[in-house]
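User: New here, please read:
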Amino acid sequence: MASISARARSLYRSILRELPQRPLSAPSPVQQRIRSSIADQSSENAQSQMDQAEQYIQYAKAQRMYTTLLERYNPGMSMDEEDKVRLTARRVGMDLPDELKPNNKL
């Protein structure tokens, strides 16, 4: 039983690392639910719940890595169309002309 509780604590900490950071004084409902489900494990069901928790941790790590790589290799994904055009023009050695605003005078 000691190895199960140590493994459960390890899984709980791993899950918390993958969730968004929150102060310990105000845990989210998800954190409370995970803690209660890990604390209330019966010996029959404990192994399958721990296996599911390990699969969730692997999935969450893979999603985090995927998002990181997507942002790294597609930096223009979060830009608006105007910024993309400006940066594309600069890439080929051109600068876009300054746009005249209706209130500005020459």
The helical segments are 2-18, 29-39, 43-73, 81-91. The mean pLDDT is 83. The CA atoms of residues 42 and 49 lie 10 Å apart.
